[in-house]
Amino acid sequence: MRLEVSCKDRLGITQDVLDILLEYEIDLRGIEIDEAGKIFLNFPNIEFEEFQHLMPKLRLLNGIEDVKTTPFMPTEREQYQLQALLKTLPEPVFSVDAKGKIILVNDQVLSNLSVVKEDLIGSDITEVLKGFNILKWLETKPSESNAQRVRFLEQDYLLDMLPVKVPNSDGTDVFAGAVFLLKSEFRLGQQLSVFQQTIADSFVSIQTNSKAMKQLVKDAKRMAELDNPILIFGETGSGKRAIANACQKASRRQGKVYLSLNCIGLSEEQAQTALFGSSNVSDNTGLLQGARNGTILLEEVGELPIRTQAKLLRIITSEQSFNIRILATTQKDLGLLMEQGLFRQDLFYYLSELSLVLPPLRERKADIPPLMDKFIQQYCFQLGRKPPQMTKSCIEYLQTYPWPGNVKQCKHALYKALTLLEGDELTKVDFKLPTSVQTNSVIADEFEGSLDEEVKRFEKDILMRLYPIYPSSRQLAKKLGLSHTAIANKLRDYGINKKSP
After folding, report:
1. Which of the residues 154, 273, 371, 500 has the least number of beta carbons within 10 Å of its own beta carbon?
2. What pTM value is reported for the model?
3. For the chain, what is the mean pLDDT?
């Protein structure tokens, strides 16, 4: 029989409980006191009549709040949980004392060695594990886990060595031994293979608390399943590459070749060599040849030299193409580049058959707290420190900050704050962010004409910039929250269509 006694923290209350058990001549098998102050008692079953008298007497003690039966003691539960874990683990597991004597093994060890448990307990761990001086490691009383290559049954294994520490009364830890977990090369290969497999939802790592991001991910999932090119618009650091990678992993070409090219700063010659290869170097076939039947990501495609654009379009649309899906990203206004003759319209229309517009971080404030929590966990794991809490005022400050560098700036600012943090709480003072951000005026400081004329000029400019991204009146109407008829009329009035420069 086991009892759980809830009580107040009073000096001598445990002794009072034990005195009652002694009065009833109960043979106590075990007693435990947890951190919450509960007393757990383990004793043989007693007659019901005696039990009826015992329970009220315990409840009458000063400081006792409740007494009830419990199916197990806390340590019993932990013991059975540990046994269940060891029994189901497919890897051999040893537990040794500080001298290297085996005190516990799981069924996998006994099965591999073809021995009974009694023959193994008490023997030296060095009798079964070779190739590394385990006893010398134990003599150092290690505080950190370690991994070594060892021989077990004449085969190579990875040995995870996990020190076991027991808290002492003075607040220090006493080294009590270690737990050894063995992994075979085959088992490691299995785990690595699973780790490299694409997760069911490739977009799961993208924060979608905000309405804008939920809609973007919903659209991206649909587009990823198709085989058409996707053009992703977004400010610097907003996560365009992350969206492109998620689209590729969710596509039919997942598992096939996936290559990328950052177009920023490429000369004409560099761009053509990277994409099409070099006739002077026999083994340089270029990305198009290398990604045959796969996918290419063109980062910042607006930077691609104009003559390379023409050649790229000619090759990927030819009858003898390489069967490549193109994903592209840009932070530039491609409509403006087309007006300036720096980007080809035909390439734009090819790439933007499907398009996504990634909202900047300042327009999805609901994503900032979970993003911060995610990065805090990642960076604190790298830095080997306990994750700090963020104050309410800190969160509010981060949500009101405009983040001109978007998610990338957010990550860098947080990493710097964590590396310099001395306490266990993050405040807005810990974030060293620029106090002001330059913004562009909607209209020129001086303009001629009436207010109505300026509003129309601004309206036309918005429509001209957005129409290439949403190349149908219905898509554009949905984006701007207007009716299809209203947008169609405005496009006609301003002479905006697919042939517009």
Report:
1. 154
2. 0.57
3. 86
Sign of CA dihedral 232, 237, 238, 239: positive
Q: Dig out the tokens for 257 from the structure.
A: 């070749």
Instruction: Put the strands of the sheet holding 230-233 in their side by side order.
Output: 258-262, 295-299, 325-330, 230-233, 354-357
Concatenated DSSP letters of 346-367: HHHHHHTTEEEEPPPGGG-GGG
Write the single-letter amino acid at 125.
Answer: I
Residue 413: per-residue pLDDT: 93
Amino acid 356: pLDDT:
93
Whose tokens are 């911060």? That residue is 372
In sign, the C-alpha dihedral spanning 424, 428, 434, 437 is: positive
**437 — pLDDT class (breaks 50, 70, 90):** very low
What confidence tens digit (pLDDT) does each residue in 126-135 have?
999 999 999 9
> From CA 192, how far away is CA 190, in angstroms rounded?
6
Q: How far apart are CA 69 and CA 138, in angstroms?
A: 42
**H-type alpha helices, 237-386:** 240-249, 268-276, 286-290, 306-316, 334-339, 345-351, 368-383
Neighbouring CB atoms inside 10 A of 26's CB total 17
pLDDT at 151 over 50: yes
Place of tokens 């991204």: 469
